[in-house]
Write a structure and sequence with these properties.
By secondary structure, this protein is mainly α. It contains three helices and no strands.
């Protein structure tokens, strides 16, 4: 990522030794190591959250496509067999009305599924994720 070589590290070490002094250098190195570790953990958590959300979005997309195909198939089956009471001259109107209703149902179902999927919290949490301290009664 930063491509820092050995010679650059030696130069940084010499400058730190001159600026901080030999007494406080070990404490400085520990502090820097602590903050670097904390930064890496944060970056890993963000990366895991992004990956989890991308996976959830992909699952939602697949489920939506599957539901859309199923509803389209149901609509086609209804169009293929209109009610026996429908007069032959009104079948086209009937078919268009059935298709319109099925399309509306599909849109409503897709919207409802999307709202439910994104409104609910994720089922799994990252092992390193913090617990919400406000919900703890103690």
């Amino acid at each position: 990522m930063f491509e820092i070589g050995f010679s650059e590290l030696v130069l940084v070490g010499i400058v730190a030794l001159l600026v901080v002094g030999p007494e406080r250098l070990p404490e400085l190195v520990r502090t820097v190591g602590h903050w670097v570790g904390r930064f890496r953990r944060m970056a890993d958590e963000v990366n895991a959250e992004v990956q989890r959300e991308m996976h959830n979005a992909e699952v939602l997309r697949r489920e939506t496509e599957k539901l859309q195909q199923q509803l389209n198939q149901d609509a086609l089956e209804k169009l293929a067999s209109p009610h026996p009471e429908t007069p032959p001259g009104e079948r086209e109107t009937h078919n268009a009305e059935v298709l319109r209703r099925e399309t509306e149902k599909l849109q409503q179902q897709r919207n409802q599924d999307a709202l439910e999927k994104f409104a609910s919290p994720p089922a799994e949490t990252h092992p390193g994720a913090r617990k919400d301290k406000t919900s703890d009664p103690s």
